[in-house]
Write a structure and sequence with these properties.
Rossmann fold; N-(1-d-carboxylethyl)-l-norvaline Dehydrogenase, domain 2; 2 domains; 12 strands; 21% strand
């Protein structure tokens, strides 16, 4: 089975690097200094899952030099690049290839399916964190739960997804199949929307948000709005109600990720004029408008992040 990692950033490097270390045929595509360092010196994956060095990696800067066709695509790009990167991937897949979205936020699956079809689109709920520590090195920073894999539309049979799940587990990436992947992706969106934009705006790690009661109230209201939008869209969330998830967030999920800094903050620190706000709080605002559900807190957070983007 041949793997193609489209988007050799932090998460793509961890998935692809650990798979390659365990003997799988993995090719990386990226477009930054990290990819160039991988070409020169190989890839190092470090952090809470131990230290790993993959000396000889197949790494391409862009797709111009890429050849052949691949069985599994691990799509690990920012949501605002999804459509363009999937289009670039088309010449390198075949009729039975599967495209796995290992991305943040809402809307990526639909974008992928528009190009390759739902029968080749697989969703993933990824809830461990990683960062590019320096070019050529990706660090696993936090781990909250297993990677969940499933077909959002039900069009991809479990038997086609199971081998990839097995490969992840063998490589040291805890994973499981899931028949309700949409429910669990929205469950992760709860986590991301409650923390990501606030952490970016205030330039603090997640744990610092819990020190201010007023911010905790903002987090609760973000969550409450998401539950209201999900109900309007008939999406079943994996928690009883907003209060139940708020308790899970503060008592279970936040403590082990307290020192984590949001990917949105990392993007803003790099001076990027783009963030994934439109796939997170912005998506909740958009779905709320479409469904007639008020989302004032998510609206304000989206507006503030967009203001930062304009001024960067």
């Amino acid at each position: 089975m041949k793997y193609l990692v489209m988007g050799a950033g932090a998460l793509g490097s961890v998935f692809g690097g650990l798979l390659a270390e365990h003997g799988h045929d993995v090719t990386f595509v990226g477009a930054d200094d990290h990819l160039l360092a991988m070409q020169r010196q190989g890839l190092t994956v470090t952090g809470i899952w131990g230290d790993h060095h993959i000396g000889a990696v197949k790494a391409h800067y862009g797709t111009e030099s890429l050849t052949g066709r691949f069985d599994i695509v691990l799509l690990s790009v920012k949501s605002y690049h999804t459509a363009a990167v999937v289009a670039q991937t088309l010449p390198f897949i075949h009729d039975e290839s599967l495209v796995f979205s290992i991305q943040n936020g809402l809307g990526n699956w639909e974008t992928i399916a528009k190009t390759v079809g739902w029968d080749r689109t697989v969703g993933a709920r990824v809830i461990f964190g990683a960062e590019v520590e320096k070019p050529g090195t990706a660090r696993v920073t936090v781990y909250a739960d297993k990677v969940l894999l499933g077909s959002p539309s039900g069009s991809v049979h479990r038997d086609r997804i199971q081998p990839v799940c097995d490969h992840f587990n063998e490589a040291g990436i805890p994973a499981a199949l899931c028949d309700e992947i949409a429910s669990f992706l929205w469950g992760k969106v709860l986590y991301n929307c409650a923390l990501n934009a606030l952490g970016a705006i205030l330039n603090v790690p997640y744990g610092s948000l819990t020190q201010t009661p007023e911010l905790m109230a903002v987090m609760y209201n973000i969550i409450r709005e998401i539950f209201n939008v999900a109900a309007a869209k008939q999406v079943r969330l994996p928690y009883e109600d907003a209060g139940a998830y708020y308790r899970t967030l503060t008592e279970v999920q936040l403590p082990p990720t307290a020192q984590h800094r949001s990917s949105m903050l990392q993007d803003m620190r790099k001076g990027s004029r783009l963030t994934e706000i439109d796939a997170l709080n912005g998506a909740i605002s958009r779905y709320g408008r479409e469904s007639g559900v008020p989302t004032p807190v998510n609206d304000v957070l989206t507006a503030i992040i967009k203001g930062f983007q304009k001024s960067s």
